[in-house]
Amino acid sequence: MKTSDTPHYENVPFEIPENWVWTTLGNIGIWQSGGTPSRSNKSYYGGNIPWLKTGDLNDGLITNIPEGITEEAVTNSSAKINPTGSVLMAMYGATIGKLGILTFPATTNQACCACIEYYAITQYYLFYFLLSHRDIFIAKGGGGAQPNISKEIIVNTAIPLPPLPEQERIIIEIERWFAFIDEIEQNKTDLQFIIKKTKSKILDLAIHGKLVPQDPNDEPASELLKRINPSAKITCDNAHYTFKVPTGWIMCKLGEICALENGYAFSSDDYKQQGIPLVRISNISDNTINLNGCVFVKKEVDDRFIVKNGDLLIALSGATTGKMGVYENENIAYLNQRVGNLKIKKNVLLPEYRNYYMFSQIEKILKLAYGGAQPNISSKIICELQFLLPPLMEQKRIVQKIEELYSYFDNIQKALEA
């Protein structure tokens, strides 16, 4: 190995300890690139010699290479067998800088460079150096349609080289920190799952009257129902249910307090590049309405097909059956067929409480869907859902508490994703 206390250029990238040296990747190992045997010769492929392409690199140990070539292919092409332990790096395209360490002998295509022998360096120190240098290799590859680096760029890259015992200590420390980072990432994933489950539990407590205390001074929910239907059958007998109906609450059917309006059967001929956005099933996602990529219509339709800010929409068919989203836009939209708009009857239900209650019922709605691979659910079935209705003032307290708790968990979620 040829090393030097001064690199092959004037400006040292950074100062190194006295017992380290600056050298180049070409001085610490033997590097070679691979090749692709002619695809037109079928006898070159299907052999038992693994042939790695850059898409097989995984930034870790290579334990599986799907494609193989024959000895004839190796003899008649630039493909070369790299020994176990070789460090591989991608040189072309979107995978520039991707790495791998062979756990068995293998060939590679020409887009991959391999270090097959090491001088005064361990394979893992080299691996972690290349990993830390990835952004630099990508920058050297340029930004064209097919960026690439050459073997010459790799072998002329400067590397700070510590003594072998120190390399081993550095590797141990790197892997300790990587394990710590992996543990943090797993803890983040676990915490995100806990947050999701906690939010679900908050909704469950809310709709069963266990999130905030009842106030005997609140106007009972039975009076709310009488505003819509003076002859409505009031059900608050706990004997009918497996849980206790809270004081002042009543059990009713969703259809008694809400109407589910279906959308209009627009034709694809109605779709335009501009006009009024059309909410289709595909626009319902994660409790919201996403208009990115939506179609537009200019056709005038009845007002009942107009979607307004705050409306709660439900997918009634397809793979997203039962999914719901709140339309949050000051501009109106139109409602397509097989999407329902759940509208409140009179002043008996807060829109926010309606939304939270219905979000808690998604799994129940999915179980009621029918139709196999393309499930459907009818407006009638949804309107038959039981709805535990609290007094209006308690609805306000519940919504306030839910939003207070959700805000707390949302802030944690944002911190985890930062």
TrEMBL record:
Key words of the record: DNA-binding, Endonuclease, Hydrolase, Nuclease, Restriction system
Superkingdom as given in the UniProt entry: Bacteria
The keyword Nuclease belongs to this UniProt entry's keyword annotation: yes
Stated name of the protein: Restriction endonuclease subunit S
Domain Type I restriction modification DNA specificity: 17-188, 246-414
Membership in a protein family: Belongs to the type-I restriction system S methylase family.
Gene Ontology molecular-function annotations: DNA binding; endonuclease activity
SUPFAM superfamilies per UniProt: DNA methylase specificity domain (SSF116734)
Any one Gene Ontology BP term: DNA restriction-modification system
Pfam families: Methylase_S
